[in-house]
Amino acid sequence: MRYALGVEYDGSEFKGWQQLGEHGCISVQATLQDALSSVADAPVSVICAGRTDAGVHGECQVVHFDTDVPRTPRGWVLGTTTRLPPSVCVRWCVPVADDFHARFSAKARRYRYRILNRQVRPALYRQTLSWERRALDAEAMHRAAQALLGENDFSSFRSIQCQALHARRELQSISVVRQGDVVEVQVQANAFLHHMVRNIVGSLLMVGAGEKPEHWIAEVLAVRDRNQAGPTAPPQGLVFVGPLYPDLWQLPAEVTL
């Protein structure tokens, strides 16, 4: 039997999503698998929709796993969450067809990056907010970001550690809006490269602060050179909102196109 789970987590205490071989490196994947295996009383491995880096959070990460152990969806949700640390929970569980794949069945992925834009650093919500003391022009950032829309080679916004076979991705939407002291960047694409969102945000911050003109973002995209883009934005402000799937999989509305 194959199940899909919606998983929420605060990534602050983890070394990222992916299970690593290094001793003492705690990942969200390993923590979730341990809890699921305890409920199943048998080893359980999960595959996720999109890996996140150390310090990055997940609002509705989707994973799938296979098991012959008889448990109800409610049993998987409550039993697993009981065995997880306070920073991770399973929000829902849905039985799916054997050909569903958390990664390859997804048609899009969404991220949100939030920046507290004021003179004083945050005390509350500091784990889920980045901070920029310089005044930011969110409207200029939004206009500049529209140059990234469509299918492009995003080599300029790709980490040198990125293992993807190529840098072409389809950026489906990007917006930058201000809500009081918080500037929020929302991004949706068919898939993302390693550090792609944080590198885009780091470059947009330079536009917002007046260091670079709006047309600079288009120039950086065209040159396909990571050295020409801005710095990588900190991980704290980044949340993987979740993937999106066709409705044929009958998953909850928050992850359905």
Give the helix/strand class. alpha+beta
Show unreliable segments: none
**Shape, principal axes of CA atoms:** globular
Helix and strand pattern = EHEEHEEEHEEEHHE
How much of the residues is beta strand, in percent?
Answer: 25-35%
Total DSSP helices = 5
Question: What is the total tally of β strands?
Answer: 10
Task: Indicate the percent of residues in helices.
Answer: 10-25%
Instruction: Return Rg in Å.
Output: 19 Å
Largest sheet: 10 strands, mixed
Please state the average pLDDT score: 96
Distance between the termini: 24 Å
Keywords:
globular; single chain; 5 helices; alpha+beta; 257 residues; 28% strand
Explain what you see.
- The longest helix is centred in the N-terminal third of the chain and has 13 residues, at 28-40.
- Helix content is 20%, strand content 28%.
- It is built from five helices and ten strands; from the N terminus they run βαββαβββαβββααβ.
- The relative contact order is 0.19.
- It has helices at residues 28-40, 73-82, 138-145, 196-208, 216-223; strands spanning 2-9, 47-48, 57-66, 88-96, 108-117, 130-132, 150-153, 168-179, 182-189, 238-244.
- Strands 1, 2, 3, 4, 5, 6, 7, 8, 9 and 10 form a ten-stranded mixed β-sheet that branches.
- With 257 residues, the protein is α+β, with helices and mostly antiparallel strands.
- A hairpin with a 2-residue loop joins strand 8 (168-179) and strand 9 (182-189).
